[in-house]
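Model: Ready when you are.
Researcher: Fold this.
Model:
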Amino acid sequence: MSMICNLARITEAQYASLSAGPSIITKLIYGDVDDQPVAPKRGLLSRLFSREPVPPTKTESQTVPPIDPTDQVDLDKAWHTLHFLFTGDAWGGLFPEGFLVSCGKPVGSVDVGYGPARMFDPKEVQAIAAFVESQQADTMRKKLNPKKLLEEQIYPNFGSESAVTDEDWAYIAGAFESASAFIRETNRRGMAMLVYLN
């Protein structure tokens, strides 16, 4: 099973809602997985007196509109390699370099695939955008050492070749470009951001 990293743009209002009630995260990122409330069964008395059960009402979490697909991007399996290139560490890293794995405010304890989503407010997105903008693809490629990635158990495993293949680099560079463009636009629009693994 693959571990995919996702970035999603959210409004400041959605950020505040998630801070107040983290349980809405599932509806927000996955949409209406089970949107229909379950109707109660008719009890003995209601059957005898032909009373219909009162239909359930939707709770606030059931009416949360999902994030628009245009406000989401996935980095496929390249996220861990990018994190390692950004931080030099397999799982650690300070803000903003570690935004893909080790930073951000957890959205409660709701598991959305591989642990809770993490969120960044607009000011943090601005810092992430500045950091990502400062990264040079050529410099990143020079740091990409498959043997080191293997030693550090960086996902996905590229093997143990001494040089990075053009195909492997194209995969990582493509994810980096997608992330850069997405974060740049999120910052331009003054929005907050979610990062989660599923």
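Researcher: Now this one.
Model:
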Amino acid sequence: MVIKFKKLSEDAVAPMRANPTDAGWDLTAMGIESRVEPDIITYTTGIAVAIPEGYVGLLFPRSSIYKKDLELVNSVGVIDAGYRGEIMLKFRFTKEMGTGYVPGDRVGQLIIMPIGDVFFDETNELPEGDSRNTKGFGSSDNLLNRLSS
């Protein structure tokens, strides 16, 4: 698959993978768009992409984010197939005087995934689930504890 992209500034860096088997394409910071609140910062990439219909782009922080005092504000960014604007990543500082990225740093990664045609059909009854059934958060913990005993 070929994903068309456009550099919105001459200095923008094309999405790249460090290794041919990497799932994510690294995105490089071009600058800082805004500092909306003292603890939130938006990094621009200078890149726009054309994600094909039937696919979605997912923005994740790079695994090296643990070296920075940042977390991606929306956990995972979603780029829909119709979006043609600049890719930006919004982070929150986890410490008051945290260290961030500087222009030229790789700030995130873009993963392209297929999406299927999904339709919701309202019903009065759902089929039986697995052992969790309607139990929520942490419901598989007891199962994992029993398996490891």
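Researcher: Key takeaway?
Model: The CA atoms of residues 93 and 100 lie 8 Å apart.
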